[in-house]
Amino acid sequence: MNNKQDYITPVTVSNLSELFYERVKRSANNVAYSYYDEEWKDLSWHDLSKSVELWHTAFRHEGLVKGDRVAIMMKNSPDWVIFDQAAYSIGLVVVPIYTNDRAENIRYILENSEVKILFIEDPGLCKDILTDVNTGTITGLPELIRIVTPDTIAGMDNSLLKQVKDWLPSYTETIERVQLEPDDLATIVYTSGTTGRPKGVMLSHHNIFANAHAAAIFEHFDTADIFLSFLPLSHMFERTAGYYMPMVIGAKVAYARSIEKLGEDLLTIRPTILVTVPRIFERVYNKIQDQLSKKSVIAQGLFKSAVNVGWHRFLVQQKRRSWHPKLLMWPLLKALVAGKILAKLGGRLELAVSGGAPLSPEIAKTFIGLGLTISQGYGLTETSPVVSTNKLKNNDPFSVGQAMGNLEVKLGDNDELLVKGPTVMLGYWKNEEATKAVIDDNGYFHTGDKAAIKDQHIYITGRIKEIIVMSNGEKVPPSDLELAISSDSLFEQVVVIGEAKPFLSAIVTIEEANWKEFAEQQSVPAEESSLKTENINKILLQRINDRLAGFPGYAKIIRIHVVIKPWDIESGLITPTLKLKRNKIYSKYQSEITELYDGH
Question: Is residue 61 part of a domain?
Fold first, then answer.
């Protein structure tokens, strides 16, 4: 590390377009992005700016003006940044869409936000998007004037569709960047709601820039840092923390090829910073546990010792525990266990920022014990998105950290976490009623999350509305139970049921490969009928309740329904951010749920 800092502040520039051009000015010949195109390639800030100017010219040729909406549905790549920055340069509003979203949902977003241009990676989706669900005919969308894709599509109106190579001009006109105010609308991000239609969150240039800068100054970053980007840029967590924040810092971003190849890319890129979500840690943790179960008692003991000693070492560093002689074992345990595991993450990872969902305490303790620095944070799309994260010198991994320095946080009725500050959204697009429901007269955004605040650390304790009230009056937070159950590698997804019921039940999914392995261990056919047998049901139920040993007695699962195939986005049962659509799941499995409570 060269420890060189070159931050761009909101005092220096006032919007995201100025942020980009200021970074180009300061770091013209530095590598901005690395990406894979048959081999790993680098792109400098100067070369990136030339591509932005070409796209700027193309947008001009379409007659677009400040305030028009343009949508991007692409995987992470320099093209995403080029599109984004070219749009900002003439004051356009960017609408990001998940590449794995459903056609019906995409059409709604395009129609609701009145998008004029769509840049889409998968041209095969175009017909589905433009097809009216009621008539089955390709009707198009009234405001859409152009679809830009890497390839053409047979049978599509060529006046609407253009390949990128044909759409981009062969020359760059004189760039006339539009004057932007800090509070001008920069993007409309549709929240992947677990119920009902998604709402368009309106974020200004200042909302996002203020958040990226506040996150950057929370810790020490420098121009030698390397971020590995793999979460979708259509999600504000990755967009702010993995795109705009590195731009503030002057750090390099490398785009991973895919989640499946993330392990290989970690070894190749060897990042220093990783912006991630708990699901990645869960997968690695479950893989480690599976491998350990097949190893000797000595190997299992060494692993447990490494985690135990490493965790104590972390607490000593945090000044929460005194020194102990067992810490003398750390160099050996690091060489035999911890170092080998961290080497698989590239070997020079200095910080993993975890957000988007709660990180299991057990998993956090394991990785931190192995020597990985994890800072758990919290945020929402409506807050651009980061509300809090842990300072490394005062890191409580069981909390979501301290609030960003430019935010006010407090607890409202029912201990709801309220947030106020420059990163709170402008409101919901075309939905003033929904906006008034979450932003009060004093400017506080109501998160819907219950919390506790102690020693400036925020602890999320549950959801205001996601509470199961059983028929005996006991209240249970389903997400806590679901998180505990899914820490067993056998169970992929979990929905706990029990509203107004005498006991709790659950619907769980198992990946087919895991089911086959489990069935083989139990000496039963890997068929769905085996799940109906009393013995298998009893074993699965016991495994589930073993994970709930720390919960009150009434928070136990009495009956289960098992599905051999995880729910996907196409089925409409999960959102593009992999959140479960509870109401949809309840509806699909209504007869199975009725059967679970038959006779009770």
Answer: yes
